[in-house]
């Protein structure tokens, strides 16, 4: 293990930080991740370690690195820390029995609920019918099983909401609206859809984007996290784009009459700060009315050397050239920071209301308004307020967190189609015991080599069981198992026996709680006997 740094979460991290192989994310197929660094490089998923310190009393899946990545989770962490509204949602496609991989998501939803979030669990029955060809009778049976396990693990239905896609009219109506902002070419690029893809499958994708935004229809737009495996990231990316496209206004920082992209804006900001001595009209400071002109900023920027950035980042030299062109074209036009409200989808009434709501100095143009003496945060809040008051949605981009795939007990990816590779939450406890006892390990060929070289816990499905499930909130046990394994103090036979016993106990307890949850499920307002007709539409 010279090239990799071992982690006590059952995974490895490349020492050089470089992607190890191609990565494919398919929500309906066999997702493969050669190295989780690939996801950071190729899809813009950020390392969860970057926000971990902002989370108060983090879940053990966060502490052990099982939750490895996120998109904008910092806003959710901030809302939790400040006792402000936030939500969490995840869905379950009822194509088989719930297994220990699904328990990761169940636990993440319940943890967010116990920290004050509005939490939603949905049965993705439209997706199961259109993308997997499941009959409605099969869907009903599996949906019931998923919900029983979620309730048994501690989900509070009085404080949260459970629903089926097919029964939620608000979700379907929202999906219709979101569909007006999507097109086939991006479905083709994101999902690989082609002329053979059935229309219902495409429709189910739009419905999923509506699911993800649904919590923001309840009460008000709020930070919302979607806990998922990385294979579901295509849905998150699409939804974040659609949420932005639905907004009435786009708020940006501007300096003059022309538009800048993010990289150009960084450079122009540097020029302005250097020439104006840091005074900023957006602060409300009258000293911000400087005499800086576009041509002055161009002269300064021409001699400016942008800081070095890594090879994967945007080429700032290219951004510098385009910013210089715009500044020089601006000539003697004053350079003054301001926030700009761009009309994206606003009605005439909403645009006029926005103009009236902006206090202080402003300039009105066809299609946008520039406001001086206003912070970006205040501008975002005002734009959302006006939008909601004029029948818009005011969506925030949803956040997400990503957990590692569990390794199958027989090695490779855990698969519900290979019974020996996974443990169903419905398995007889003795069968669960036997599966763990028969599992592949990261041990050496002989006990002598194990004691001499230590085991490879990072490659061991049994250690993953401890880290992901069996150790629960006991970090000490997870650390002890890892340390004893890699130091050669723990042999695989005893380790598997301990894990098998814990698995049997877990299944016994969980299934007792499932039985207790039967009555609770019967009292919920969710129809588990669908009267729909159809044969499915597998693509």
TrEMBL record:
Instruction: Specify where it is mainly localized.
Output: cytoplasm
Q: Where is this motif: 'KMSKS' region?
A: 413-417
> Does the keyword section mention rRNA-binding?
no
GO BP annotations, alphabetical order: tryptophanyl-tRNA aminoacylation
Query: Which EC number applies?
Result: 6.1.1.2
Query: How would you classify this enzyme at the top EC level?
Result: ligase
Query: What reaction does this catalyse?
Result: tRNA(Trp) + L-tryptophan + ATP = L-tryptophyl-tRNA(Trp) + AMP + diphosphate + H(+)
Quote the Gene3D superfamilies the UniProt record gives.
HUPs, Tyrosyl-Transfer RNA Synthetase
Cellular component aspect of the GO annotation: cytoplasm
Q: Give the UniProt keywords, A-Z.
A: Aminoacyl-tRNA synthetase, ATP-binding, Coiled coil, Cytoplasm, Ligase, Nucleotide-binding, Protein biosynthesis
Which InterPro entries does the annotation name?
Answer: aa-tRNA-synth_Ic, Rossmann-like_a/b/a_fold, Trp-tRNA-ligase, Tryptophan-tRNA-ligase_arc
What stretch or stretches form a coiled coil here?
496-527
Subcellular location as annotated: Cytoplasm
Region (Disordered) residue spans? 1-27
Query: SUPFAM superfamilies from the entry?
Result: Nucleotidylyl transferase
Compositionally biased intervals (Basic and acidic residues) = 1-17
Show where the record puts the motif 'HIGH' region: 94-102
GO molecular-function annotation terms? ATP binding; tryptophan-tRNA ligase activity
Q: Which domain of life is it from?
A: Archaea
The record's family statement is: Belongs to the class-I aminoacyl-tRNA synthetase family.
Role description: Catalyzes the attachment of tryptophan to tRNA(Trp).
The record's PANTHER family line, in alphabetical order, gives: TRYPTOPHAN--TRNA LIGASE (PTHR10055:SF5), TRYPTOPHANYL-TRNA SYNTHETASE (PTHR10055)
Its recorded name reads: Tryptophan--tRNA ligase
Q: Which organism is it from?
A: Halorubrum halodurans
Q: Which taxonomic lineage is given here?
A: Archaea, Methanobacteriati, Methanobacteriota, Stenosarchaea group, Halobacteria
């Amino acid at each position: 293990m010279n090239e990799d740094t071992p982690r006590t979460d059952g995974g490895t991290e490349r020492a050089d930080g470089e992607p190890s192989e191609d990565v494919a994310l398919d929500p309906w197929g066999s997702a493969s991740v050669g190295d989780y660094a690939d996801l950071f490089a190729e899809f813009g998923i950020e390392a969860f370690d970057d926000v971990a310190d902002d989370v108060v009393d983090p879940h053990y899946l966060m502490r052990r690195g099982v939750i490895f990545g996120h998109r904008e989770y910092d806003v959710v962490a901030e809302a939790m820390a400040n006792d402000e509204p936030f939500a969490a949602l995840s869905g379950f496609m009822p194509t088989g029995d719930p297994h220990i991989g699904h328990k990761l998501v169940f636990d993440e939803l319940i943890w967010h609920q116990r920290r004050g979030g509005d939490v939603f669990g949905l049965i993705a029955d439209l997706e199961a019918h259109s993308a997997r060809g499941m009959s409605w009778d099969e869907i009903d049976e599996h949906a019931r099983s998923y919900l029983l396990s979620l309730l048994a693990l501690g989900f509070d239905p009085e404080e949260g909401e459970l629903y089926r896609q097919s029964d939620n009219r608000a979700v379907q109506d929202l999906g219709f609206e979101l569909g007006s902002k999507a097109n086939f070419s991006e479905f083709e690029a994101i999902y690989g859809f082609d002329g053979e893809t059935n229309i219902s499958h495409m429709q189910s994708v739009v419905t999923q984007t509506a699911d993800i935004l649904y919590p923001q229809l309840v009460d008000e737009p709020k930070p919302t996290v979607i806990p998922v495996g990385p294979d579901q990231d295509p849905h998150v990316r699409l939804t974040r784009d659609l949420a932005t496209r639905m907004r009435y206004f786009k708020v940006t920082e501007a300096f003059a009459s022309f538009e800048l992209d993010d990289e150009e804006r960084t450079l122009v900001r540097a020029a302005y700060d250097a020439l104006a001595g840091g005074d900023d009209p957006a602060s409300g400071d009258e000293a911000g009315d400087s005499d800086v002109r576009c041509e002055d900023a161009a002269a300064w920027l021409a001699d400016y050397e942008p800081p070095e950035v890594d090879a994967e980042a945007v080429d700032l030299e290219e951004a510098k050239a385009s910013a210089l062109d715009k500044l020089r074209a601006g000539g003697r036009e004053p350079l003054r920071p301001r926030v700009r409200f761009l009309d994206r989808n606003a009605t005439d009434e909403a645009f006029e209301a926005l103009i009236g709501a902006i206090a202080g100095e402003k300039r009105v143009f066809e299609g946008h308004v520039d406001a001086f003496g206003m912070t970006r945060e205040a501008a975002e809040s005002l734009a959302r307020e006006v939008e909601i008051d004029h029948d818009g949605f005011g969506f925030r981009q949803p956040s997400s967190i990503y957990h590692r795939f569990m390794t199958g007990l027989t090695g490779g990816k855990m698969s519900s189609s290979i019974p020996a590779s996974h443990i169903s939450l419905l398995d007889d406890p003795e069968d669960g015991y036997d599966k763990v006892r028969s599992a592949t390990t990261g041990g050496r060929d002989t006990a002598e080599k194990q004691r001499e070289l230590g085991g490879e816990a990072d490659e061991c499905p049994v250690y993953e069981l401890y880290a992901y499930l069996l150790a629960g909130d006991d970090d000490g046990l997870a650390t002890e198992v890892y340390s004893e394994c890699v130091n050669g103090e723990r042999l695989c036979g005893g380790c598997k026996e301990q894990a098998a016993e814990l698995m049997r106990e877990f299944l016994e307890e969980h299934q007792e709680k499932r039985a207790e949850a039967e009555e609770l499920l019967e009292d919920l307002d969710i129809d588990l006997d669908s009267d729909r007709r159809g044969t499915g539409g597998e693509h």
